[in-house]
Amino acid sequence: MTTLADPVPGGRPGDVERAGALSDELSGRGVHGIVLAYVDTAGIARVKTIPTAKLASAAAWGVGMSPVFDTFLAGDSIVTTDVLGSPDGDLRLYPDLDLLVELSAQPGWAWAPVDRITQEGERHPACSRTFLRRTVLEAAEQHDVTFKASIEIEWAVAQPPGSEGEFVPAVTGPAYSAARQVELSDCAAELLAALARQGVEVDQFHPEYAAGQFELSVAALDPVAAADRSVLVRQTIRAVARRHGLAVSFAPAVLGQGLGNGGHVHLSAWREGVNLHAGGDRRHGMRPEAESFAAGILAHLPALTAVTAPSPASQLRLRPSQWAGVFTAWGRETREAGLRVVTGTAGHRAEAANLEVKPVDLAANPYLALGCLIAAGLDGLTSGARLPQEITGDPAHLGAQDAAARGVRRLPTSLAEAVEEFRTNEPLRAALGPVLADAVIAVRRGEVDAVAGLDDDQVAAAYRWKY
């Protein structure tokens, strides 16, 4: 469970003393440094590190970092808004001590996610982790609803890139094959051991469809912890692969053609310990609140893609008939729909039923993605929205009249189009607030400009090793 209170100068009650004890404990185990991690608007995990002995100081007064990173692009160019992108100012990074963990695959290091506040002790309006935490708290206070979430992680395993940054798969076996699992056996076993030592509960790990691709699924947690875990798991995968002389890419597309890496989100709404996606009288056992929540996500899906699929490389993945969910459609266990209703197995549905949002990849900032998905769902919950007719099969095969009758339309086919959908979506902009919403728009437009004139292969190459 994450710490839900905002950081304050001087430290939250008990944090400084707790940090001092943790510092002594970690130092006694040979941990010399602590990685303080957050994710910027472009989806890049940014860090500062401190000596372990400075943990108590960080818990009290934070660690300085410029707010300019809120308008960094994936390639480290900088764009601006009316508030962000200048060389002025400073922020303080405050570690969440509840999530601090010793890094099994990086001996001598520990890791913690951070919230960012101003030097005056106020919330930083562009801190995505704070945004998600506040969204979760407001949902509990205003709707008596809590959430469980998890983010699937897909990545490609490659030989270390040369000066040209080429992609050479490190394994060659067919999709989901025993051959591919054997080829990565030692590395995979070490990864599972490292995650277990870090307290990460892994549900599944298997070879995936694309060249050199694997997928790992973890247990559902509260949304903030789920986003934190997504960042930690990727850090661990990268570290373990490096110890085996391998490189990994979480980019939405490592090649201009073919299937890409997804980051599908699983999300469920709960009230007083009851899963609202099971045991109800609506379609597939949904309760009215769950259907309205799902309908809200579906209605806002075109605008959400500016947050959930935010890279020019994302568009290389978001193609019809490739299980990427590129239509505003829903269905039970329908993997081509943008929103998949997962009921779970009979006898286990009260625990397992959830929504899977398909058009999500790991270029997305997970805090922004989960926060916006929840905000969209709550908009549907507030209005009592109803789902349209569900689909089966591939929505790409629907005729125009049938698609229109079911409310099925193609998601944006360019990042520029997704940004325009987002720009005119008042509920999402209001949920984020003007500073963070404007940062999303500026960074996405910056990425569009950065790849102007590039073909698909060049776009894939430009982002291949950024994520």
- Residues in helix, %: 25-40%
Largest sheet: 6 strands, mixed
Q: Quick one: overall form? A: globular
Task: Compute the average pLDDT.
Answer: 95
Distinct helical segment count: 15
| Low-confidence blocks of residues | none
Distance between the termini: 26 Å
The secondary-structure class comes to alpha+beta
> What is the C-alpha radius of gyration, as a whole number of Å?
21 Å
The tally of beta strands, per DSSP, is: 16
Oligomer: single chain
Strand content: 15-25%
Can you give a write-up of this model?
By secondary structure, this protein is of the alpha+beta class. It contains 15 helices and 16 strands. The strands form three sheets. Strands 1, 2, 3, 4, 5 and 6 form a six-stranded mixed β-sheet that branches. Strands 7, 12, 13, 14, 15 and 16 form a six-stranded mixed β-sheet that branches. A four-stranded antiparallel β-sheet has the order 9-10-8-11. α1 (15-28) runs antiparallel to α2, α3 packs parallel to α10 and α10 (366-383) crosses α13 (426-432). It is globular and about 65 Å long. The chain starts with 14 loop residues before the first helix and ends with a helix.
Write the layout of secondary structure elements.
Blueprint: H1 15-28, E1 33-39, E2 45-51, H2 55-61, E3 63-65, E4 91-95, E5 101-102, E6 109-118, H3 128-143, E7 146-151, E8 153-158, H4 178-183, H5 185-197, E9 202-207, E10 213-218, H6 223-243, E11 247-249, E12 265-271, E13 274-275, H7 288-308, H8 314-317, E14 330-332, E15 339-342, H9 349-352, E16 354-357, H10 366-383, H11 400-405, H12 415-423, H13 426-432, H14 434-450, H15 456-463
Parallel strand pairs: 1-6, 14-15
Antiparallel strand pairs: 1-2, 3-4, 4-6, 5-6, 7-12, 8-10, 8-11, 9-10, 12-13, 12-16, 15-16
